[in-house]
UniProtKB/TrEMBL annotation:
SUPFAM superfamilies: (Trans)glycosidases
Pfam families in the cross-refs: Glyco_hydro_1
Active site: 381 (nucleophile)
Protein name: 6-phospho-beta-glucosidase
Highest taxon above the source species: Bacteria
Biological-process GO terms, alphabetical: carbohydrate catabolic process
Protein family per UniProt: Belongs to the glycosyl hydrolase 1 family.
The keyword Hydrolase is assigned to this record: yes
Length: 481
């Protein structure tokens, strides 16, 4: 009996970014305003997302025409540096580059009569640049942003109308880039919708937790439908191309071997896997029907929805992997949760931002996902956000090398276990604006970008120690770590 001891020859090594965290150029070439561009940076490292935006703060953001308080308006100016940045990715030997298309660059107001030609042309240029180096694109269609106009008109994904608007966008880009993009993802970390990341949030503040959850699960249903339609469109327009789901996978460990804790952890895990269950298997799982019923959540579906979900499951499953959770049963909790999540795991170390580092958890996750779905997997995010120090023009980021090495070692083990893994795009190969805190100083990159939290700096790109290390990893197909 033999088993694969190593990465397959065609393994897709690379890196991943998102439009609103790198592009900048927020008011250039006809781009409309996106939800990410009204999220203000907090002063105290707090996490701030769309769900924190209120009607009042939205008004302030709309009136502000500068990028001072809104770092996702400036990104790292990839819009004007993409050639230089892609050349650096190529120097590391990238086989694939994951990036997202800003919907608001293509349809500035979400429902415009015609797509914005200058927006489409920008991604033509990016794709041409990647083709020059034989780097395959992996494009996320929706990465934590949408045209603000749709949130004002329909409360974002809460409105069923948004499905139609999104699928016009997807059809437009599938047609435009047909034959040039082998891999697509629909919604980045689709599960985080239950945390309110995909809505205006403006209406949420006054509602009870139950009412908020009702809206969020309904919004998610609309995303599931939009995702299935996009899958149908892609398969018709570009039959060679593959499309995947994207989950923020958070494996949950029980806090103790007490069966009551193990059961609490299992339910928590199911609530995380629910999203890929729908997108991979094409139907809502039974355990969620019970959860919805017991928590007074009713998902409104159109007649055709269930047939559509069943007919167009995703081709592969991708996920981000940063940490694992610990769950314990909590007697005092109300029926909504009945468990405590996120306790510290005493066996793990944590990052500067308190994210618990768990390389073995990646092997566990890969095995569990493969067992569950038997569809090819793709790790499309993993990495270490850290406070890097630039000293005499160098960044000695051995801690980042260690982090990535340990995770890559565990991927290799998972491949030997029999897991079908398509590739690995580490998060943020070049420093970018943090999603959760909008900080620049939470750096993930192999490439340092000279910019501080307030947007000061030359934007110069500088290779860190990890740059050469990753080049070696790719050159040896993961053998020399
Ligand atoms: C994922 C997101 O949640 O994690 C990315 O898909 C994000 O957009 C990444 O940047 C890391 O999170 P953060 O908050 O450190 O930027």
């Amino acid at each position: 009996v033999t088993f694969p001891k190593s990465f397959p020859k065609d393994f897709l090594w690379g890196g991943a970014t998102a439009a609103n965290q790198v592009e900048g150029a927020w008011r250039i070439d006809g781009k409309g305003l996106s939800t990410a561009e009204v999220v203000k940076k907090a002063d105290d490292r707090r996490q701030v997302s769309m769900s924190d935006v209120t009607a009042e703060t939205l008004k302030v953001a709309l009136a502000d025409t500068t990028d001072v308080a809104y770092p996702k308006r400036r990104g790292i100016d990839f819009y004007h540096h993409y050639q230089e940045d892609i050349a650096l990715f190529a120097e590391m030997g990238f086989k694939v580059y994951r990036f997202s298309i800003a919907w608001s660059r293509i349809f500035p107001n979400g429902e415009d009569a015609q797509p914005n030609a200058a927006g489409l042309a920008f991604y033509d240029r990016v794709l041409a640049e990647l083709a020059k180096y034989n780097i395959q694109p992996l494009i996320t269609l929706s990465h934590y942003e949408m045209p603000i106009a749709l949130t004002q008109k329909y409360n974002g994904w809460a409105g069923r109308e948004t499905i139609t608007a999104f699928n016009r966008f997807t059809e437009t880009v599938f047609q435009r880039y047909q034959g040039k993009v082998p891999y697509w993802l629909t919604f980045n970390e689709i599960n985080t919708g239950t945390w309110g990341f995909h809505e205006t949030g403006a209406i949420d503040k006054h509602l009870s937790e139950k009412e908020q959850l009702q809206i969020r699960y309904q919004s998610l249903h609309h995303q599931f439908v939009a995702s299935a339609r996009a899958t149908q469109q892609l398969h018709e327009i570009d039959p060679q191309a593959k499309i995947g789901a994207m989950l923020a996978r958070m494996q949950t460990y029980p806090g103790t071997p007490n069966p009551i804790d193990v059961r609490a952890a299992q339910l928590e895990d199911q609530k995380n896997l629910f999203f890929t269950d729908v997108q991979a298997r094409g139907e809502y799982p039974e355990y969620m029907n019970r959860y919805f019923a017991e928590n007074g959540i009713t998902i409104k579906m159109a007649d055709e929805d269930q047939a559509l979900l069943a007919a167009y499951p995703v081709d592969f499953i991708s996920f981000s992997y940063y940490m694992t959770n610990v769950t314990q049963h909590d007697q005092s909790a109300d029926s909504m949760g009945n468990m405590v999540v996120g306790g510290r795991n005493p066996y793990l170390e944590e990052s500067d931002w308190g994210w618990q580092i768990d390389p073995i958890g990646l092997r566990i996750t890969l095995n569990a996902m493969w067992d569950r779905y038997r569809k090819p997997l793709f790790v499309v995010e993993n990495g270490l956000g850290a406070l890097d120090k630039l000293e005499n023009g160098h960044v000695h980021d051995q801690y980042r090398i260690d982090y990535l090495r340990q995770h890559i070692e565990q991927m290799k083990e998972a491949i030997a276990d029999g897991v079908h893994l398509m590739g690995y795009t580490m998060w943020g190969p070049i420093d970018l604006i943090s999603f959760s805190t909008s900080e620049m100083s939470k750096r993930y990159g192999f490439i340092y970008v000279d910019q501080d939290d307030d947007g000061n700096g030359t934007l110069k790109r500088i290779k860190k120690d990890s740059f050469d290390w990753y080049r070696k990893v790719i050159a040896t197909n993961g053998e020399d770590l």
